[in-house]
């Protein structure tokens, strides 16, 4: 795997690990951005935090990289309604970001999806070790 792709893999893995852990450090924030039509806000915040952190760790294990990448792609799609909710209700999130930033954030989710695919689904992505395993 080329050095740039290796760095991209580690960066996105660390980003998901950090974001996942942040769900436990700032659960009130994550609960506040959940759309009202979704039940069990706190439980889903904790669940998504665990899945993000575990997925990020699993990206570092070559044997788990493909499934971790696909799982994180699905998780990214699953939390997309919260991003849409924020963009459609910017008046609720003035302390977080501007309305423009909330809308710019939406297409960035597709950049994350492409990034995950690139680092986890290529031919050599599961055969080269960059972490434990």
What report would you give on this structure?
- There is one protein chain.
- The chain is mainly alpha-helical and about 130 residues long.
- It has one domain (about 5-120).
- It has helices at about 5-25, 25-30, 40-60, 65-80, 80-90, 100-120.
- Helix 1 runs antiparallel to helix 3 (about 40-60) and helix 5 (about 80-90) runs antiparallel to helix 6.
- The longest helix is centred in the N-terminal third of the chain and has 23 residues, at about 5-25.
- It starts with a helix and ends in a 12-residue tail after the last helix.
- The model has no long low-confidence stretch (mean pLDDT about 90).
Notable characteristics:
single chain, mainly alpha
The gross shape turns out to be globular
C-alpha end-to-end distance:
16 Å
Assign a percent range to the helix content. Answer: over 70%
Contiguous low-pLDDT stretches (5 residues minimum) are none
What's the count of strands?
A: 0
Count of alpha/pi helices? 6
Output the helix-strand order. HHHHHH
Whole-number tally of structural domains: 1
- Average pLDDT for all residues: 91
Biggest sheet, in brief?
none
Kindly provide the radius of gyration, computed on alpha-carbon positions and rounded to a whole number of angstroms: 16 Å
**Class by helix and strand content?**
mainly alpha
Percentage beta strand: under 5%
Short summary of the structure?
With 133 residues, the protein is mainly alpha-helical.
């Amino acid at each position: 795997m080329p050095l740039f792709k290796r760095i991209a893999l580690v960066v996105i893995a660390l980003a998901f690990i950090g974001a996942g852990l942040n769900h436990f450090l700032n659960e009130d924030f994550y609960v506040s951005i959940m759309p009202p039509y979704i039940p069990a806000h706190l439980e889903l915040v904790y669940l998504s935090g665990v899945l993000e952190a575990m997925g990020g760790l699993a990206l570092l294990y070559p044997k788990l990289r493909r499934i971790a990448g696909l799982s994180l792609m699905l998780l990214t799609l699953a939390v997309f309604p919260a991003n849409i909710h924020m963009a459609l209700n910017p008046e609720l999130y003035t302390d977080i970001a501007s309305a423009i930033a909330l809308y710019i954030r939406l297409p960035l989710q597709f950049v994350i999806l492409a990034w995950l695919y690139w680092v986890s689904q290529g031919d050599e992505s599961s055969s080269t070790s960059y972490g434990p395993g």
